[in-house]
Amino acid sequence: MHILFVDESGTPPEADKAALQPFFVLGGIVIPEDIWAKMAGDLSRLKAHYGIDGEIKWRYFAPDRGGKPNALSHLTAEQKENLRTQLYETIKRYKSVRLICVVTQTEQAYSKGYVKTGDDIYWYSYKQLTERFQYYMQDLERVVGQKLNGIVVCDHRGPKDDERLRELHHKLMSE
Q1: Is 102 helix (H, G, I), strand (E, B) or coil?
Q2: Number of C-beta neighbours around residue 44 at 10 A
Q3: Whole domain around residue 34: which residue ranges?
Q4: Over 80: is that where the pLDDT of 109 sits?
């Protein structure tokens, strides 16, 4: 079993806000189930070493501008950079872990006749991401010579957003 963990960078903008948010990013990390526990342990040790309690979000690595406190607020810029490097090293340590990312240019997406809402941007980004995951799994099956299974795990966003994503995923699987 391979697990694709998916998370987005922000919220896909509606058409009238696309110029203010030129990119929407949907990223995923593919982790084989036998690696997951090891990687989770590595990440827990890193969090303990840096005294991190809570979720690590990439925006927390930005210079502190006096915003709300977050899980990395207590770290200096140098400590944040060391943590970021160690997170990358953790991912790199496991040769079977893969990153998949979709970057959508929002204004260009809206110029297509079929993209009309932020949900459409999310849907087409999600579709591209999961298709890449499927292709990766098919290529891997050819190499190992056996059927492999995959599962997609998405970050919780909100009840309505999650329901729409389940509908989109069902549509993707049934069409």
Answers
A1: strand
A2: 11
A3: 2-174
A4: yes
